[in-house]
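Q: Structure tokens for this one, please.
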Amino acid sequence: MKISKEKLKIIIKEELELANLAVPVAEMAEIDNEGRMAKRQLTDIHEYSGELCQMLNDDTQLEAWVQAKLTLAADYVKTVKHYLEYEMKDGQKDQVTPHYDANLTNMGDNLPPVA
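A: Here is the predicted structure, written as tokens:
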């Protein structure tokens, strides 16, 4: 079966148009794997924190840098939890990526002038 040059050009043009409409595979993989990666990290945090709780007594003395790391870790986890809780409240969002209004040109037009 022979394909003419003109027919081949049409086929190539159509394929290029389809390729431009498709979401790149790398972007899809990045979006799809973020939740899985976060869950894996949280599983590690859960596992290690449980082991640390068993290792320590109420009167265990820790070096300052160890206490600082635990404080930061607790703060980071709390901050992410509260952020996600707010962004995903009432099950309204299944993705946390913010959505902005594309028309931002009128932003602040209704504000009174600064004194």
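A few notes: Residues 99-109 have pLDDT under 50 and may be disordered. Residues 64 and 70 are 10 Å apart (CA to CA).
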